[in-house]
Amino acid sequence: MIANQAKVGSLLIGHFSARYNEEDYPQFLNEVQSEFQNVEISEEQKTYQIGQKKSP
Predict the structure, then answer these.
(1) Domain locations along the chain
(2) Radius of gyration, alpha carbons of the chain
(3) 18 — alpha (psi -120 to 50), left (phi > 0) or beta?
(4) 13, 19, 33, 55: which has the highest count of C-beta atoms within 10 A?
(5) pLDDT, tens digit (0-9, with 9 covering 90-100), for 24-55
(6) pTM for this model (two decimals)
């Protein structure tokens, strides 16, 4: 998966086809989490902080 290769800390997924609805989201999440653990499905009207990891 590209997210693993890029060594990102988290993955935000969205922009699903109109043929899917929110009832399908758990299936998408499970499918992605089989390859990459830290995944979140984006929500309309929600603000997300995107940026680099903070140094310890």
Answers:
(1) 2-41
(2) 13
(3) alpha
(4) 13
(5) 999 999 999 999 999 999 988 999 888 766 65
(6) 0.70
